[in-house]
Backbone:
């Protein structure tokens, strides 16, 4: 879902650049406030964020085939938000996107704001709050995380379709079903991986889930 | 704590180094849509900055699998270091 330079027009990528930039500033404020109280669990935050980011980067390299000569990969927004909190999750996703853009040319530089918006703000923050709502209703972490992460992929890709349409790159009635369609499939992979990883952590290192989330 | 970080990083590196060469090379969701709906070309050749490891391939390394593995190794290390650095740079110092 990494948008390259050239797909979006200036009004779209500058707007999203501003929105993402401001949200990142907010996220840094919120996380730096809490992460360093009294040593405690705050000190674990930074290494945890580092490791989680490293895993997300690695996982995003592991494309799996979905229907008809297409591939998808794990995104990780909801998973990282559940582990670290929504704002830390945004920082993790954004960091991965920045490295991918600058070092590997995966995602355009002008499109960085849009990619952070889709995969960080929608993918992690919105996905996280969707998770909480579902969790409250059905009380099971595995199913809740599956649904929320599936939804995060479908919503993020739909946002991407809207952005492409507003940019005049492709009409919405063409982009939306195409993007939502293939990402509904990719989202199944996201859901399965999210639920499995969460389940694994719950079984083996439940203490990791107790770390203060911002 | 340090041991945990070390092993966590090792696992991430193992994933990137040993599994990435076998990842699917098919177009991803957005690329597939872009190709099918004829706008993929709009995203080509528009590189504003020259990236050292474009498309996860190390330029000088001929063997494709090795190139991908190395890209994975480098990427995991850079990502971890970047987050670690930013995390510490944005620390709010405790007031005495």
Residues:
């Amino acid at each position: 879902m990494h948008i390259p330079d050239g797909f979006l027009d200036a009004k779209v990528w500058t707007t999203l650049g501003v929105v993402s930039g401001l949200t990142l500033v907010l996220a840094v404020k919120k996380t730096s406030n809490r992460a360093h109280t009294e040593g405690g669990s705050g000190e674990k935050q930074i290494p945890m964020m580092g490791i989680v980011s490293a895993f997300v980067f690695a996982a995003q390299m592991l494309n799996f085939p979905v229907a008809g000569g297409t591939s998808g990969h794990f995104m990780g927004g909801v998973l990282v938000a559940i582990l670290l909190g929504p704002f830390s999750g945004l920082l993790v996703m954004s960091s991965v996107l920045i490295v991918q853009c600058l070092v590997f040319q995966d995602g355009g530089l002008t499109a960085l704001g849009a990619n952070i918006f889709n995969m960080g703000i929608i993918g992690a923050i919105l996905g996280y709050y969707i998770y909480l709502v579902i969790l409250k209703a059905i009380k099971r972490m595995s199913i809740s995380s599956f649904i929320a992460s599936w939804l995060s992929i479908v919503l993020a890709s739909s946002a991407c379709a809207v952005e492409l349409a507003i940019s005049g790159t492709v009409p919405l009635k063409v982009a939306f079903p195409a993007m939502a369609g293939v990402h509904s499939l990719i989202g199944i992979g996201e859901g399965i991986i999210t639920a499995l990883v969460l389940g694994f952590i719950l079984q083996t290192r439940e203490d990791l889930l107790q770390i203060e989330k911002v | 704590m340090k041991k945990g970080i070390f092993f966590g990083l090792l696992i991430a590196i193992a994933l990137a180094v040993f599994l990435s060469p076998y990842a699917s090379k098919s177009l991803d969701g957005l690329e597939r849509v872009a190709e099918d709906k004829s706008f993929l070309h709009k995203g080509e050749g528009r590189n504003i900055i020259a990236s050292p490891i474009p498309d996860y391939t190390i330029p000088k390394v001929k063997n494709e699998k090795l190139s991908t593995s190395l890209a994975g190794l480098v990427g995991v290390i850079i990502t971890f270091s970047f987050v670690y650095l930013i995390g510490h740079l944005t620390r709010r110092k405790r007031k005495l």
Chain B has a mean pLDDT of 90. DSSP finds three helices and one strand in chain B. Chain B touches chain A through 61 residues (CB under 8 Å). Helices of chain B lie at 2-19, 29-36, 64-89.
